[in-house]
Amino acid sequence: MSLSKEFFWGGATAANQYEGGCFEAGRGLAVSDIKTAGSMTTPRRMTFLNEQGKPIIQNKENKVPQGYKGAIHEGVYYPSHTATDFYHHYKEDIAYMAEMGFNCYRMSISWTRIFPNGDDVEPIEAGLKFYDDVFDECLKHGIAPMVTINHFEMPLHLANEYDGWLNRKTINYFLRYCEVIFQRYKGKVKHWLTFNEINILRDYSSLGIHDLTAEKHYQAFHHIFLASAKAVILGHAIDPENKIGMMLAHIASYSETCDPKNVALELEVSRKFKYFFSDVQCRGYYPSYMIKYLERQNISLVKEADDEQILCNGTVDYIGFSYYNSGVASLRKDAELAYGNQVRVARNPFLEESDWGWQIDPIGLGISLNSLWDRYQMPLCIVENGLGAYDEVTQDGKIHDEYRIDYLRKHIHELKRVVEEDGVELMGYTPWGWIDLVSAGTGEMKKRYGFVYVDMDDEGNGSKKRYRKDSFYWYQKVIQSNGEEL
Ligand code: BG6
Whose CA is nearest to atom 14 of ligand 1? Predict the structure, then answer.
């Protein structure tokens, strides 16, 4: 048996895609709450009022002009507002997790449920109580919560009034939130992740910054690195038992050819978009290649005297990462692009792809595990992996999702192989969207990842009734056998 008895088997979700209850118990709006639904070919959009108070809707990727304030427009459907309604179904849903045999549940806390504006002095008791109830219910079933402190979340007020992560004050507001949750959930939550997929936070919806430029982007990252490091220091001080990790989107990348120029390009891309982030958070300092790159770009970051010390003292305890697909670095300007987790990469002719065009590559998971382990020698946790696919419900309420089982089976086989053959230290596996939820990339419902089906469509219609898919029973056996029966 290659996996330890303590191996975390579970599933993952995020508040803005699953929780709903957007207007319950004094919760404030987050930037994710002004995002519309989209599709694979139509980007999600965001809604604003301009300086004259006129409603404006624009693409997520576009720059948001100064003076625009994120706002909800009448008659527009926003998928995060009810999502798949964990808020009102948490007992039922945790019972499903328990039935499958989860011993871990990765979820995120909604910042604005605790501090509705982000800069409030006092937290909201009802919000804190909601997560108390959730954690108590999990613990009752022997499920350890693993909490992402910030999963694609920014209080709308901080974006509107402070320019989000561009403003150094945001660090203090974030720390106030961290302190409250570390204190409150001490003893209930031991595993934390600071920022979800830190390396792909890149637009208004995740950073809350108007008129985003490269310089502002790196300044925001500097603030986020500090916020994460300070959270680690604080979390350890409040409870030395806390294990606080980083979270990286790990897209394994390959050079398209053996042309050394192509190999050099792959290295450059991997460092700039991936390892820069884990280098800072695991080693505690900016890597030289990035310092030099920023110099060449004439980007000089505004730093304070003790920033370096904070980064050095606030290194993480483990690396959580998401893995869905690999990508190809190509020198060709006309390379055909495949879709993928948040970024588009050149298509790999050796791989099959999902209904949404993401290329399926289980071996890439093994390569990712080995690359991260070799580079940092730090415990790893696969906190997201899975297949977004169309599901069909049969007349008798069954969902035969053999394609999902096939995807997961191959990935679990690979993770076991590298633990066994290479001795990689792997803490656990929490596949994404263990229950159907709203897609982050497209805002759709029909892109489903779950073991549990939720009756809801792309416009939010449906009973929200839950159904066990075939993969539910399959994963249950995988967990029971500690990964031996695939
Ligand atoms: C990651 C995110 O990018 O991938 C999740 O951490 C997201 O929030 C997941 O849902 C899958 O992406 P998508 O676009 O299929 O929802």
Answer: 441
